[in-house]
Amino acid sequence: MKRFLKQYWHWLLATLIFVMLLLVFSDMTFFNYVATRANVRRLRAESESFRERSAADSMFVEQMRSDEFVERYAREKFFMHSDDEEVFIVKER
Asked: Residue 43 pLDDT more than 80?
């Protein structure tokens, strides 16, 4: 191994310099590659959260087709009531 390194050290050095130049000065540098990979991971996670939210919203829209659900939702969220009812709002701390 020592003999190999003594004989071909200049080729190893040239190869190392070439690889370093490729990593730093190419169109897609190593640092850009790492940043792009991180961005792709973040966007995939965001996409998954939007899919989950879309599924939940689709379920909500499906439930809104029921009159009983619409009435219960309006009473809970918007404090709606009929004329002969009283509404008491209790807030938790």
From this structure: yes
How many other CB atoms sit within 10 Å of the CB of residue 73? 15
Residues 73 and 64: their CA atoms lie apart, in Å, by 9
* Token pair belonging to 17: 């310099």
Angle CA(63)–CA(67)–CA(71) in degrees, nearest 5? Answer: 95
Residues composing the chain? 93
At 25, the pLDDT band (50, 70, 90 cuts) reads confident
- DSSP for residue 2: H
Distances from the Cα of 28 to the Cαs of 21, 22, 32, in angstroms? 12, 9, 6
How far from the centroid of its chain's Cα atoms is residue 1's Cα? 49
CA 18/CA 43 separation, integer angstroms: 33
Which runs of consecutive H residues, i.e. helices, occur in the chain? 2-25, 30-63, 67-78
Q: Which residue has the tokens 């640092």?
A: 31
